[in-house]
Design a protein that fits this description.
Blueprint lengths: L1 E6 L3 H14 L3 E7 L2 H11 L3 E5 L7 H6 L7 E6 L5 H6 L4 E4 L4 H13 L11 H4 L10 E5 L4 E5 L3 E7 L2 E6 L5 E3 L3 H7 L5 E5 L2 E4 L3 E5 L4 E4 L4 E3 L5 H9 L1
Parallel strand pairs: 1-2, 1-3, 3-4, 4-5
Antiparallel strand pairs: 6-7, 8-9, 8-12, 9-10, 11-12, 13-14, 14-15
Amino acid sequence: MLRTILLDDEPQSVALLKHLAAHHCPEVEIIGAYTDSLEGLAAIRHNQPDLVFLDIEMPKLNGFEVLNQCRPVNFKIIFTTAYNQYAVRAFKYSALDYLLKPISEEDLVAAVKKAAQSQVLPEIRQYDVLQQFNPLRQTQPQKMVIPTLEGLIFIEITDIVHCDSDGSYTRIWLSNSDPLLVSKSLKEVEEMLHFDFFYRAHHSHLINLHHIKKFVRADGDVLMSNGRSVPVARSKRQEFIDIVTR
C-alpha cells in the first residue's frame, strides 16, 4: 500500500481525488488530506508518506516551496494543477507524473500504477535525482518535458544539439527530429539544462559540447552534428578552447 497525503487548496479537488482513489486505486491508502499548505507540510514531515498528490498554486506556500522545505524528499510526487506551464519545473523535482485538472480516472489510475511500480532509489534523494544525473553514464538518458498547446513533448537530453534564442522564445535543435520552438527564454532553458556538457557559446546560442564536429578558428564558428554552424562569441573563444581541449 502507498501511504498517501493529498495537498490542494481547492476542497473540491481534494474531494474528487479521494473519491477516485477510493474507487479505482486500491494501492492507495490516504492518511491525510489538506487544503492548507502549512498544515499539509507539517503532516508530510510528521507522517513520512510514500506518495504525495501536490497542487502547485496555493496560498502561503506553493507546491515547490513545500518540497523545498521537505528536503530530503523521500516520497513519490504526483503534481495536480490546472496549469501546464509548470511541467518542466515539476520534472526537475523528479515528479512521477503531472496531472492537469480536471483529473480523469484514467490519468489517475495510470499515475498511481507508476508510483506503485517504481522503486525508491537507494542513497539518492528523489529531489536530487535530476541534479545528480549524468545521461552519458546511464542506460536510460534523462528526459526533458516541453509543454505545448497540444500537450507535453518528452525529449532526451542527449538528443539536444543546440539551442538558439528567438526573442522571448527558444528554438531547440534535436539530432533526430525537427526543431522545437518553446515559449522560454534561452536563459530559462540554460537553467534547465544545467549539465556540464552544455555551454553558452554566445548570448544567443547554447551548445551541447558532445555534438561538436569541428571548430573553425578563423571564423570562430563551431560545426554541430546536425550540420549547422553556431558562432562562439569572441570574448568566449579562449575559454571555449580551454574547455574542449582539457
